[in-house]
Amino acid sequence: xxxxxxxxxxxxxxxxxxxxxxxxxxxxxxxxxxxxxTGLILAQAALLAxxxxxxxxxxxxxxxxxxxxxxxxxxTGRAGAALAAETAALRGAAAVKERLRSKLARHAIRLxxxxxxxxxxxxxxxxxxxxxxxxxPYYARYLPQFVLAVAVPAAVLVAVTAxxxxxxxxxxxxxxxxxxxxxxxxxxxxxxxxxSWQLLATLSGHFLDVVQGLATLKLFxxxxxxxxxxxxxxxxxxxxxxxxxRIAFLSALVLELSASLVTALVAVxxxxxxxxxxLGYSTALxxxxxxxxAYVPLRNASAQFHASADGLAAAGxxxxxxxxPAPIPTERPTPLPAPRLAPRLAQVAAVDLRSQSISFNxxxxxxxxxxxxxxxxxxxxxxxxxxxxxxGPSGAGKTTLxxxxxxxxxxxxxxxxxxGVDLLxxxxxxxxxxIAWLPQRPALFxxxxxxxxxLGRPGASPAAVERxxxxxGAADFISELPAGYETVLDERAMRLSSGQRQxxxxxxxxxxxxxxxxxxxxGAHLDPASAAxxxxxxxxxxxxxxxxxxxxxxxxxxxxxxxxxMRDGSASELTAYLAPQR
Length: 582
Fold this sequence. Notes:
This protein has 582 residues and is of the alpha/beta class. 62% of the residues lie in helices and 9% in strands. It contains 19 helices and ten strands. The strands form two sheets. The chain has a six-stranded mixed beta sheet, sandwiched between helices. Strands 2-1-4-5 form a four-stranded antiparallel beta sheet, with no helix packed on it. A hairpin with a 2-residue loop joins strand 4 and strand 5. Helix 4 packs across helix 11, helix 5 packs antiparallel against helix 10 and helix 7 runs parallel beside helix 10.
């Protein structure tokens, strides 16, 4: 287990370096400034040794003026270099975090909508916000300190050995003990930090679920029980964090103790040789001043590693998500040679659902982890302007069929043709511009009513938005809102009724004016009166468009057409009902 954790941590560190492209310039500046600080450390020790030895020999202040001014300049330079290095590293960290957040968001969108259902939304939010913010200590402090932890001990060892080989030998023998102790403690810290992060992700996701379902929990008297669950998870997280801090404090004790003992050992042997005249006073001061500097960067690097452990754990989780492949690819590569590619692209560009049919040819969809396919060997032809109602029990494959047409998933086997062209050869965005979709629970955002409707066609004029609302039967209740079309909806538009939310979603479809309508249980959660109003609006919307409606009940939704019954991923046609096909 520890071996796997070491490999995972090393892989995360390598990925973080590889992802540092946007901030690599800043990080390089921070590293250069850290190396400059190494030279200033040696200069500081040499100047201090000269000043102190001169003072002990009763040298006048005037004679030491130059050394004092140089020492002041060195101290100022060290402080300035440290500040500039941290500033540059923080800028680099900000650039890297922005890149990782963008990649995480884009990848989640590419995997949507099937993938997010397998993850807690709270975990994704936590990763994209506080999780990636935890990378600041890693980039701004740990990496520069790691450079110092390599450069400073090596420079100090060379300088001390040149001045006094015995002290240099002692430092060379004892120096590896500090990183050894740090590595031993770091293994335990890494495992504990990963557990803390998993608990935090669980807590975030569970808390989000509880908040979203609070009304249901209170109705069934389960809010107190969930409060206890949140308390238990919070307590487990607190215990885990305190355990991590305890390890970090013990680590600091071990490293401080080992560094202090080695420094004391050098001090004793230097003092004895100074006492017997085997070592000069200035050399002894130089060695004693430099010896602690060899261990300080190692201790600091260990401390910064503990501070950046949360960021490493969060980054590891982000990389796991980024490495998650789409369950079913939604694009099919075109292996045609260049001379044959242009005619095919022209054919793709000519696809128009107002005049061309959609054909399912032996389509099978199998989801990972499910023993049976959701759709099995489906053959179906949808003519332009046709209306089809798809019925069947839950799990029969109705939503999967719509997902195929929405390009959320692609067939595992078989092919969908549009006007004789493979659907997967059509760019997804160009294809979706010809589709209007009404899900069971349409998403409404905390924008104005007009902006929510205009989601169907960004940039639409206010007159077009109002016309679409009127066609959807939403104009009456919108006019009663405090600011009409400029009323800002609350989160998930919970102050509106289910019927009002459905009408706003229908207004989007009227505004979009797409040739293919996909409707998923449009009246499932509505009272009879609202369902009748929504049904009438859908009938007006259908017009001469191609319409596919998913329903649990064997009933006519759009006034005519065909009815298909799906069972266990297979479709069979029921008796056709009256429908004027245009």
